[in-house]
Write a structure and sequence with these properties.
Blueprint (H helix, E strand, L loop, with lengths): L3 H10 L3 H8 L17 H10 L5 E2 L6 E2 L1 H92 L3 H5 L3 H11 L4 E4 L6 E7 L2 E11 L6 H13 L4 E6 L9 E4 L2 E5 L3 H17 L4 H15 L2 H57 L20
Parallel strand pairs: 5-6, 6-8
Antiparallel strand pairs: 1-2, 3-4, 4-5, 7-8
Helix pairs in contact: 8-9
Length: 382
C-alpha cells in the first residue's frame, strides 16, 4: 500500500530504472493496508513501466540504459573521476621525473667524482714520473761528471801531468796567476791574436810585451807554433810563449821554434819572470828597437842552450815529480781519514744498537736485529 505522498514522488522516480527496480520489488506491496491509503499493485507498476518514455542513453560504465539527465550526471561523475585520476597521474609523473632528475644528478656527481679521482691519480703518477725523471737526470749528470773526471784523470796519467798543471792551460787561470806574480804589470785576456797579453811596466812606462798562447792538447802542433809567432808579430811583442800540455819528439819541457818559446806549464812562470827581467833591463839601458830585438834573440839562444836549458828542464821535471808526490800523498791521507771515519761510524752504530736493546730487554720487549750500517762519506773542511 502506498500513500499519496509516496505516490507523488513515485511519479518523479519512475524514469530512474534503479528506483523503479526498488518499486518493482515487493517491499512496498507487502506492507499492510492502511485506512485512507491507495493500493498500488504490481500491475500498476508494470503499467507505469510500459508508459514511461524509452531510454536512449547507455551507461558508459555498465552499458545499462539511462535517461538523458542521469546519463549527463554519470558523465560528470566520470569526468570528475578522470580529472582526479589525471591529477594523481600527473603528480606521480612529476614525482617520477623529480626522482629521475635526482638520480641523474647523483649519477653525474658520481661520474665527476670518479673522473676527478682518476685525474688525481694520473696527476700523481705524472708527478711521480717527473720526480723520478729529475732524480734520474741528476744521477745521470753526476755519473757523466764522474766519467768525465775519470777520463780527465786518465789523460793526465797518460801525459804524466796533474790537475794543478792543467789549470795553467786555461787562459783565465794563467791571467790570474800572472796578476798574482806581477801585480805592477798589466795583464789582458784577449781570446784571439794571442790568448794573453803581458805589458811589462817599469817606472810607470811600458818596458815591453809578452804574448802567451795556451794550448791544452796531447801533441805540440806546428800550427800552434806558427800561430804564436804570428801573434808575437801582430802584437809587437818582444817574446812569444806557447804554453802547452802536449809533447813531441825531443821536447823535455822547454824549447825554441820559429822565434817563440815552447814551454810546459810547470815552467811558464819561471820563463815569464826571466823574460820580464830582460825587458826591464833593456828599458833601463834605453835600447832602441833593433838592439832590443838582438838582445831578445841572445836571451832566447841562451835560455834554450844546454847551459841554461838543462837545469831548467831538471827544475821542471823536479817540480812535476814533487807535485805528483804531493797529490799521491794527499790521496793516501784522504783514504786513511775516510777509513778512520768509517770505523768511528761503525763503533757509534754498534754501541747505540746495544744500548737500545738493553732498554728494550729491561722493558720486557724483544731485542732488535742488527741492521746494515749506511756509511756517510767524509766531508773535508773547505
Amino acid at each position: 500500500m502506498l500513500t499519496k505522498f509516496r505516490l507523488k514522488y513515485l511519479t518523479r522516480w519512475v524514469y530512474y530504472p534503479r528506483m523503479i527496480a526498488r518499486i518493482g520489488n515487493s517491499k512496498f506491496v507487502k506492507r499492510p493496508a492502511d485506512t485512507g491509503s491507495v493500493q498500488l499493485s504490481t500491475l500498476t507498476v508494470e503499467s507505469i513501466r510500459e508508459n514511461e518514455p524509452p531510454m536512449k542513453f547507455k551507461c558508459p560504465l555498465c552499458d545499462s540504459p539511462l535517461s538523458e539527465s542521469h546519463y549527463h550526471k554519470v558523465l560528470k561523475i566520470q569526468e570528475k573521476k578522470e580529472r582526479v585520476q589525471k591529477g594523481a597521474l600527473d603528480r606521480l609523473r612529476k614525482q617520477a621525473a623529480a626522482a629521475q632528475a635526482v638520480a641523474a644528478t647523483a649519477r653525474s656527481k658520481q661520474r665527476e667524482i670518479r673522473l676527478k679521482a682518476k685525474q688525481d691519480v694520473e696527476a700523481a703518477k705524472r708527478q711521480v714520473v717527473q720526480v723520478e725523471r729529475k732524480k734520474s737526470e741528476i744521477r745521470n749528470k753526476r755519473l757523466l761528471s764522474r766519467i768525465a773526471k775519470l777520463e780527465q784523470e786518465k789523460e793526465m796519467l797518460q801525459r804524466r801531468t796533474n790537475p794543478r798543471e792543467i789549470g795553467l792551460a786555461d787562459e783565465l787561470v794563467l791571467v790570474n796567476r800572472l796578476k798574482k806574480e806581477f801585480p805592477a804589470d798589466l795583464i789582458q785576456h784577449t781570446g784571439k791574436g794571442g790568448d794573453v797579453l803581458h805589458f811589462v811596466k817599469w817606472s810607470g812606462e811600458d818596458a815591453g810585451r809578452i804574448v802567451y798562447e795556451c794550448k791544452h792538447t796531447d801533441r805540440i802542433s806546428g800550427d800552434h807554433v806558427r800561430q804564436t809567432a804570428l801573434a808575437r808579430k801582430t802584437r809587437d811583442a818582444s817574446y812569444g810563449i806557447l804554453v802547452t800540455t802536449g809533447t813531441r819528439k825531443g821536447f823535455a819541457g822547454l824549447a825554441q821554434d820559429s822565434g817563440v818559446f815552447i814551454v810546459a806549464q810547470a815552467g811558464v812562470i819561471t820563463l815569464a819572470r826571466l823574460c820580464r827581467e830582460s825587458l826591464v833591463t833593456m828599458a833601463k839601458q834605453r835600447l832602441d828597437a833593433a838592439a832590443r830585438e838582438a838582445a831578445a834573440k841572445r836571451l832566447m839562444d841562451y835560455v834554450t842552450s844546454p847551459g841554461f836549458k838543462t837545469p831548467v828542464e831538471e827544475a821542471i821535471c823536479s817540480a812535476e815529480r814533487a807535485r805528483n808526490n804531493l797529490v799521491r800523498e794527499i790521496r793516501q791521507h784522504v783514504g786513511d781519514w775516510q777509513e778512520r771515519h768509517e770505523l768511528y761510524q761503525t763503533i757509534h752504530f754498534d754501541v747505540s744498537h746495544v744500548q737500545r736493546n738493553i732498554g728494550r730487554v729491561l722493558d720486557g720487549e724483544e731485542p732488535l736485529k742488527l741492521e746494515k750500517l749506511k756509511l756517510e762519506p767524509l766531508a773535508l773542511p773547505a
